[in-house]
Protein 1
Amino acid sequence: MSNVEYSKGLEGVIAAESRICKVDGENGKLYYEGYSIDDLVEHCNFEEVTYLLLYGELPNEGEFSSFQSHMRASRDLSEPIRRMIQEFPNENHPMELLQSVVAYLSGYVEHKIQHSAHCNCRDTLHQVVQLSTVVAAYERYKTGHGYIRPSKSLSHGSNFLFMLTGAEPGELEGRIMDDCLILHAEHGFNASTFTARVVASTISTCYSAISAAIGALFGSLHGGANEKVMAMVDEIGEPSNAAGWVNRTLDEKRKVMGMGHRVYKAKDPRAVIMENYLYQLSEKHGDFRYYEILKEVERAFRDRMEEKGKPIYPNVDFFSGAVYRLLGIPTRLFTPIFAMARASGWLAHVLEQREDNRIYRPKALYVGERDKTVIPIEQR
Ligand SMILES: CC(C)(COP(=O)(O)OP(=O)(O)OC[C@H]1O[C@@H](n2cnc3c(N)ncnc32)[C@H](O)[C@@H]1OP(=O)(O)O)[C@@H](O)C(=O)NCCC(=O)NCCS
C-alpha cells in the first residue's frame, strides 16, 4: 500500500467498485444502473426507479405492482413519530428532524437482525417512503395545520404535494414533482453517499447509515445551493438587472450559485430537464419572471467565463429552486426534498456495500510531533 498517494478530500481516489451510478462529466450524461436519466424520467416513476436502484434492474409489471403496493402501504406515520414531529423545536432545521426520525425508525428493523450485515430494509422501506410524509407533516404542523394522511392512489411525488397542501396536484405538477425525485435519487460517491457506505461498512443498520448520510447532506457544501439560487433571484428582482448583478458578483470574486460542478464539464443533464420543467410551469402560471432572470444570469455568466476560457455551465440546483417555488414549496423544504429523493440511492449503496463488505479505514498523513516526553502536571 506504500504506493497510495495522499489526496486531500480523497479527490480522485477510487474507494469501491459500484454498478449503481455513472456520472459522465465530460459528456454531461448520468446513468442509473446503465439507464440514462433522460430515459428514466421519460418512462418511469420514482417508485420504479427506487426498485431499479435496490434490485439492479427494472421490474416487470407483476414485480412493480407488488413493490408499489408495498411502498404505498408504508406511507403513513405512526402516532409516536407524529408526536416527535409536533414536538420538534420550532427554531431547528427540518434536516435535523429527518436525521432523528430515521434513527428512531430503526425500531422497524427486526431485533434479531439489527446488527447483522443483512436486514429487512428492502421489505420495510420505511426509511425511503416515510421521509416524504415526515417532511410534509413537519410543514403542516409548523404552519399550524393538521396532519394529512397519505393517499395510496397517487405517485410518490404527487402524494407528497397532496400531503403538503391537502389538495391533489394537477397532472403536470404531480409528474414534475415525481421526476424531480428521480433526478435527485442518485449521484455516485458524493459525500453523503460515501458517509452511508462508511457507516454500513461497520455492519451498522441501514437506518444509522441513512441518518448519518442526512447529516452529511445538511452541510452547506453539499445540499442547499438551490436555496441560495432563489435568494439570488429575489435579490436580482427583474431580468434587466441580471447582467449587472452577475458582473458585480464576479468582479467581487464571489461565486454565482447553481453554476459549475466538480464532475460535470458540460451542462448537467439534470439542469437541462429542470429548465424544461421551469418553462412548462412558467407557461402554466403565465409568469416567466424566474425563468427569464435565470436565463439572463446564465447568459451573462457564460459570456464572462468564456472570455476567460472557462466553460462553466448550470448544475441541477440552478433551476430546481424556481421549479419548487412554482410548485408552491417553501424554501426551507428544498434540502429535505433532496434527502427524500436521495434516500433511495443511499439505501442502494448500503445494500451494495454489504454484498462485498470491507470496513473503511483510511490513514491520515501524520504531521504531528514525535517522541515527546511527558512533564508531570505540577512541573508544566
Ligand atoms: C460546484 C463547485 C464547488 C465546483 O468547484 P470546482 O471543482 O473548484 O470548480 P472548477 O475547478 O471547475 O472551477 C474553475 C474555476 O471557475 C470558478 N468557478 C467555478 N464555479 C463558479 C461559480 N459558480 N461562480 C464563479 N466562479 C466559479 C472557480 O472559482 C475556478 O476559478 P479559478 O480558476 O480562478 O480558481 C463550484 O462550481 C461552485 O462553488 N459552484 C457554486 C455552488 C453550487 O452551485 N453548488 C452546487 C453543486 S451541485
Protein 2
Amino acid sequence: MTTTRAPHVDEADALDDEGAIGDGDPADDGAPVTDLPAAMASALDGMDVPTAIRTRRTIRKWTDRPVAPEVVNELLECALWAPSACNMQLWDFVVITDHETRQRLGPAVPHADTAQIVIFICYNSRFSQGSYANIQSAAAAVMNMLLRAHSLGLGGFWQATITDRTLLREIIEMPPDVEVLSTTLFGYPDEAPGAPARRDPSHLIHWQKYDLTKKPILPSAWRPTHWTLAQVADYHQARIRAGPRYNKPIPSEYRAVRGYLGHALRRAGVDAAGKVVVDLLPCTGLYLEAMAAEVPKATLSFVELGTQVADFVHRRMPRPAAFHAYAIEGEGVPSDVPSASADAATVVFRLENLPPDERRRLLREAYRVLKPGGTLVVAHMNVRSYFEVFRWIRWALGRRDVQYALHADPSLGPFEALAPEAVDGLVHEAGFRIEHRHGAFPMPPPDEARHRVRALSRRMVPLARWLGLVHDLSRPLHSVLAPFNRIRFLTAVK
Ligand SMILES: Cc1cc2nc3c(=O)[nH]c(=O)nc-3n(C[C@H](O)[C@H](O)[C@H](O)COP(=O)(O)O)c2cc1C
C-alpha cells in the first residue's frame, strides 16, 4: 500500500474560500493522507514520465468498469499539484461520478453519458484572466490528470466541445459567475487508438527568434492565392492529423459525390481487371475509399503531397492503392506515374484548394497520366450557390477565421468555390473535351441545412428546419435552379 501526503479533495473542507489549499507550503498543510490501492501503486511504479507522455492517447470509448473512488481522488490530487498562476489555484473541479447525472449530461456534453467519470474544471469569471492565466492553469491541471490516468491504465479525454452550456449550467447548478474552462472524461479504455501523427518539428520550432523563412507557417487567409503548394501540403497533413472521425462528410453530399464518381467511372468502362484509376490529391482519401467499392475491379492509385497523408489514405483503404508523391516544386513532371498509363483520373474538391497556377499544373498532370481516350472526372464547389451565401453570412457575423480540420465538409483551410466557366476553361486548357456536366444541391438538403446553420450560430438552429422544408418543397424547381447547384461534376475525355 502506497500513501501520499496530499489534500483529500473529496472532502468539502479541503478547499478554503479562495479555492486554495492551505496557506503556505502545500507539503506542510496538514492535509489528509490518501491511500492508494495496491494496483495503483504498481502502475505508478511501472510508467516513467517520458513513456507516459509518449504513449498517452485520447480515449473516447470506455468499458463499464467502474473507477474506484481512490483512483478518482488520485487524479484530482494530481490536478491540484499542477502549477497555477501565482499558485493561486483559483480553480474549482466539479466531479460527476453519479450515473444518472452523467446520463442527463449527455445532450450537453458529448460522451458524458459513456464515460465513467466527468470532471469539469471551472474558473470564476471575476478572477483576473490577464495573460490567459486561468486557461493556462486549468490546462496544466488537465494534463496532470491525463498523464496520471494513463499511468493507472485509465483512458482520458480532453474535450473542448460543449454542445449546450445552458443545460450544463442547469444540471451542475453552476453559479452565473463561474465558467467551465475544460471538460475531462475518464474510464477504462475500450479502444486502443494508434498515435495520430505529429507535425514536423522543423516547421514549428524557432530557435532564438521567430524565423519567418521557416516553411510552412500556414497563412490565415482562406483564399488559396495566398498559399504556396508547400503550405497546402502542410494543411493536408493538418486535416488528417485528428483522424478519420473528423473527416466525415455531410451524408447527402457523400452520397451524391460517390454516386457520380461510380456512375462516371463505370460509364468510362474502368470497372474491369487491368484498368487503372488515379485519384489526384485525395487528401483524406474519403472518395478514393468510396471508389474502391464503386469500381471494385479497377486498380487504384493516388498522387499526394506527403507520406503522412499517404499513410493515412492507405490505412483507410479496403484494398491496396499505389501512392505516388506529387512534387511540391520543380520544372519536371510532378509525379512518377508513367505517362499515358491510366484509364481514368479523378480530382475531387481539390482545384478549390490550390493556387491558380497549381490548378493548371494538376490538370496538366491528369492529362499526362491518362491514356488517349482516358476519362477525367472533376467535382467542384460552385461559387454561384448557397455555399457562397453561407460563407458571406459567416463573414458578416465576424467569423473570419480559416477553418481547419474540425469541419464536416471540404470547405476548409484554403478553399475557394469556383465559377463553372472557370473550371470548364481550365479543363479545356489542359487539353480535355468535356463530355458530361451534372450538379447537385441547388438548395441545402435537410442534413446540410442543420450542419451549416449550426456552424453559423446555435441561435439560428431553428432556421435549419425551414431551410430543409424549402429544399423539399422546391424539388420540382431543382432542374431550373441547376446553375446554382452547390456541387458541379464534369466528365471530360483526353
Ligand atoms: C484543448 C483540447 C481540446 C480538445 N477537444 C476535443 C474535442 O472536443 N473532441 C475530440 O474528439 N477531441 C478533442 N481533443 C482531443 C484531440 O483531438 C487529441 O488530443 C488529438 O487528436 C491528439 O491525439 P492524442 O491525444 O491521442 O495524442 C482535444 C484536445 C485538446 C488538447
